[in-house]
Q: What sequence folds into this?
């Protein structure tokens, strides 16, 4: 079982105290949580893009072939892991301003637990549509922000009055890291790996035989 997973979702105040205590004993305790849970959005993306498919226009369904779907899933997994370690570096760098003294591993672990809602939101990739994506991302963002505000005073041992500014800085840097990782990832996948799409257009049943005849040469 992934450590602290259910406690983070039900009792985050209690979870952060336990996480801090565990990280002081073993600063790499977050590894199981991060590497296992990051598989969830990657696997769901493979299933959604290869088996479920998506639609951009009416009566058309698009899928990725196995190779392209695996490549996309692998890139997403690598981006999550890399982004977490990069954010850990920036979080530790910012901690000096707020008189916190966490180790690098503790900062990476803190970010790994903060992004838990976003990794759970990866379940939305099973049915890749615009509104499903927007809904799960917004919900994940709200709960991740809540975890951030609850966790900073407990995990970082800072004054509650510094929480808002520290959280705002963390969010700002997080968005910059996300953009600077996701854009190159997409460009690499589209331009270098050359994904293969499979399309299936459903014939409009309301298209009458008379209309077909008129479009044939000579009306025949």
A:
């Amino acid at each position: 079982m992934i450590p602290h997973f259910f406690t983070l979702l039900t009792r985050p105040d209690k979870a952060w105290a336990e996480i801090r205590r565990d990280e002081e004993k073993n600063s790499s305790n977050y590894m199981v949580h991060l590497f296992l849970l990051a598989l969830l959005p990657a696997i769901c993306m493979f299933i959604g893009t290869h088996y479920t498919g998506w639609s951009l226009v009416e009566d058309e369904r698009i899928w990725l072939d196995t190779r392209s779907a695996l490549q996309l899933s692998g890139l997403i997994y690598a981006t999550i892991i890399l982004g977490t370690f990069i954010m850990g570096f920036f979080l530790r760098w910012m901690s000096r301003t707020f008189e916190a003294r966490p180790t690098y591993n503790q900062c990476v672990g803190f970010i790994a637990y903060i992004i838990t809602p976003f990794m759970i939101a990866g379940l939305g990739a099973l049915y890749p549509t615009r509104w499903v994506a927007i809904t799960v991302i917004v919900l994940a963002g709200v709960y991740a922000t809540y975890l951030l505000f609850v966790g900073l005073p407990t995990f970082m041992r800072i004054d509650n009055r510094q929480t808002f500014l520290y959280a705002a800085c963390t969010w700002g840097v997080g968005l910059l890291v996300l953009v600077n990782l996701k854009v190159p990832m997409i460009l690499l996948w589209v331009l270098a790996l050359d994904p293969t799409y499979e399309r299936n257009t459903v014939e409009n049943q309301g298209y009458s035989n008379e209309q077909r005849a008129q479009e044939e040469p000579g009306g025949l």
Summary: The first helix runs from residue 5 to 10. Residues 203-220 have pLDDT under 50 and may be disordered. The CA atoms of residues 29 and 158 lie 22 Å apart.
